[in-house]
Amino acid sequence: MSNVAIRDLQIQLGGNKVIESLSLDVKAGEFVVLLGPSGCGKSTLLHSIAGLIDSAGGQIEIGGKDMTWADPKDRGIALVFQSYALYPTMNVEANMSFGLRISGTPKAEIARRVSRASEMLQLGPLLKRKPANLSGGQRQRVAIGRAIVREAQVMLFDEPLSNLDAKLRTELRRELKQLHKQLGATMIYVTHDQVEAMTLAQRMAVMKGGVVQQFDTPDIVYNEPANLFVAGFLGSPGMNLFNGTVERRDGGVIFSNQHLSVDVSGYAFKHALTGRQACVLGVRPEDIDIGAGLACASVSLIEAMGAQRLVWLDFHGTQVAALVQDQSRIETESVIGFSVRPQRVSLFDSVSELRM
């Protein structure tokens, strides 16, 4: 297992600064996910770790060694791309062993590694088939197997499941999690899929505009977003946001605006609250209770989601999402009360947009 340490990394593509002064520490044996919208720089960062993109500044360390200018083959990494990139004229076994064969690995060692990887990925019955005779999920397993046989200390994944349907993605997600436990290798995984990030990551780095907005465990990123971008980006839908002010009043701390008042006395402020301060209150859809409360809103839309329903409320022109577990009768255009669970809110400074 090798750690990956990135120090003040700078990447320029075509004269444009894609990443500027980015630092990130990935522990040995850790599964880290890079999450963000298209164009945020997550794949560029991964490719720079792999040595496919030159840096304009900063340092990349792998296993304690400076690999900033090392060739990809010398970095001790394996990379799985979004496209399977399999050789169509070779069977599964030949595709998986190709890199080992051209590097002069002994035949017995190649056989051992291919056998081990095929067993892990349930590819044994498919070893003599060619890519044209494989499903999308099987082809991606072969691409992953080709990376495994290298026995690299660091494995990099660039949106490897994005071409698969939902059922296959779920299956391969589970297999990747099990694979990490078996191999113990350091894994860095790029995705824009929040479900993949939340289920796979031990820690996740949420990126925007080439900058890491928050780097922490999925639970902390979801429940305690560092800023308004993370709050709105993570979750489907994202956090409900209400503009207002927060101040000490009547022996407690109250968030309020023209239509809503929430007692946030139990909120863990990062800095002591002084006076009245403009802020944004954020609350997840599952932390909105409907059917009771002082605030009233009109039901504008109901989305059935099997055991749950997503109820959209029109609250004085603001769309509020509430995730409802029970099967009580709710009708569109009806007016109902709702309340916010105060122990589950997040507060953000209106100017800096950082968590208070």
UniProtKB/TrEMBL annotation:
<keyword id="KW-0067">ATP-binding</keyword>
<dbReference type="Pfam" id="PF17912">
    <property type="entry name" value="OB_MalK"/>
</dbReference>
<dbReference type="InterPro" id="IPR017871">
    <property type="entry name" value="ABC_transporter-like_CS"/>
</dbReference>
<keyword id="KW-0547">Nucleotide-binding</keyword>
<feature type="domain" description="ABC transporter">
    <location>
        <begin position="4"/>
        <end position="234"/>
    </location>
</feature>
<protein>
    <submittedName>
        <fullName>ATP-binding cassette domain-containing protein</fullName>
    </submittedName>
</protein>
<dbReference type="InterPro" id="IPR047641">
    <property type="entry name" value="ABC_transpr_MalK/UgpC-like"/>
</dbReference>
<dbReference type="InterPro" id="IPR008995">
    <property type="entry name" value="Mo/tungstate-bd_C_term_dom"/>
</dbReference>
<dbReference type="GO" id="GO:0005524">
    <property type="term" value="F:ATP binding"/>
</dbReference>
<dbReference type="InterPro" id="IPR003593">
    <property type="entry name" value="AAA+_ATPase"/>
</dbReference>
<dbReference type="Pfam" id="PF00005">
    <property type="entry name" value="ABC_tran"/>
</dbReference>
<dbReference type="InterPro" id="IPR015855">
    <property type="entry name" value="ABC_transpr_MalK-like"/>
</dbReference>
<dbReference type="InterPro" id="IPR012340">
    <property type="entry name" value="NA-bd_OB-fold"/>
</dbReference>
<dbReference type="InterPro" id="IPR003439">
    <property type="entry name" value="ABC_transporter-like_ATP-bd"/>
</dbReference>
<keyword id="KW-0813">Transport</keyword>
<dbReference type="InterPro" id="IPR040582">
    <property type="entry name" value="OB_MalK-like"/>
</dbReference>
<dbReference type="InterPro" id="IPR027417">
    <property type="entry name" value="P-loop_NTPase"/>
</dbReference>
<keyword id="KW-1003">Cell membrane</keyword>
<keyword id="KW-0472">Membrane</keyword>
